[in-house]
Write a structure and sequence with these properties.
With 150 residues, the chain is mostly beta strands. The protein is built from no helices and eleven strands. The strands form two sheets. It has a six-stranded antiparallel beta sheet, with no helix packed on it.
Length: 150
């Protein structure tokens, strides 16, 4: 399965969650909008790979995978809070993964500068090498954005 086409979202009606923290990863599907349904589902491959489930998703929490992993091997999704660290100086800053229309790609947005930072990842760009670590997401951990950058 190509990670770039995965989506993540939180199950609609969290009080009925039978397992986990309510997050589902899989393929996004538009479903008929009927009472008690959000109109969006994710085909969940993570709970049991031999049995696909379709979970009703809160549309406000849907985020696309950007096709990259952080330093711990976690997939990075739109809406994640990520710490970017310069490997040479150990200077780090925190931002939110968002799609930048002006750049036509996913970028890390820094609250302090209100500008996109690129995901250079594992390559050297201008002699600088960065590491990226997912430290939360805007839906569960928005307080992390209040923390000052190092």
């Amino acid at each position: 399965m190509n990670d770039r086409y995965l989506f993540r979202g939180k199950r609609h009606g969290m009080s009925k969650v039978p397992y986990g923290d309510g997050w589902v990863i899989g393929h996004l599907i538009e479903t008929p909008k009927v009472p008690s349904r959000s109109g969006w589902s994710i085909a969940d491959y993570t709970a049991n790979p031999s049995r696909i489930t379709y979970d009703d998703i809160d549309p406000a929490t849907i985020g696309q995978c950007i096709g990259l992993n952080d330093t711990n091997g976690n997939l990075i999704f739109e809406g994640d809070i990520v710490r970017r660290t310069n490997k040479s100086t150990e200077f780090s800053e925190v931002g939110v993964v968002r799609y930048a229309e002006s750049h036509l790609k996913f970028c890390l947005w820094n609250k302090e500068f209100d500008c996109p930072m690129n995901f250079y990842g594992k390559s050297n760009v201008h002699g600088i090498k960065y590491s990226f670590e997912v430290i939360g997401n805007i839906h569960d951990d928005s307080k992390l954005l209040e923390v000052q950058n190092d």
